[in-house]
Q: What sequence folds into this?
């Protein structure tokens, strides 16, 4: 019977996890094996830009319209919504880059 702990063992033959850190017993420092290339990061960047550009563009449009609203409450609402939309998109990009840098072992994992 297989258990969860079997999948944490890198010597387990059916293990699907990719271990990007190499830690030798005779060294005090672990080394990360990078299997990523600039092409993988470029494709990742293109996909992120294509996916999040509509959100940033929509947020800019909302901010552009905000001063033209009739009341102060509508202006504040548009300003808050547009700012939130842009900040959320930029945050998603930052978190995705950080996550991929930390956990992606290959170009396929980047995408």
A:
């Amino acid at each position: 019977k297989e258990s969860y702990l079997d999948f944490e063992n890198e010597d387990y033959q059916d293990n699907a996890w990719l271990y990007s850190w190499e830690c030798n017993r005779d060294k005090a420092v672990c080394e990360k094996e990078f299997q990523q290339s600039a092409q993988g990061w470029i494709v990742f960047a293109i996909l992120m830009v294509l996916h999040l550009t509509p959100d940033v563009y929509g947020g800019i449009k909302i901010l552009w319209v905000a001063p033209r609203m009739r009341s102060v409450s509508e202006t504040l609402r548009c300003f808050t919504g547009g700012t939130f939309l842009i900040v959320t998109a930029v945050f998603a990009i930052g978190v995705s880059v950080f996550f991929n840098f930390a956990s992606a072992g290959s170009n396929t994992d980047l995408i």
Summary: The mean pLDDT is 82. Helices lie at 4-8, 38-65, 72-103, 107-110.
